[in-house]
Amino acid sequence: MKTIIYMVRHGESPYNEGNERTRGLTPKGKIDIEKVTKLLVGEGIDIIISSPYTRAILSVEGLAEHLKLDIKVFEDLRERHFASNIIENVELMSSIRESFNDPNYTLPGGESNADCQKRAISVLKPILKEHRGKKIAIGTHGLVMTLMMNHFDPAFGLEFLNQLKKPDIYKMQFEDLKLEEVTRMWNE
Question: In which domain of life is the source organism classified (predicted)?
Answer without folding.
Answer: Bacteria
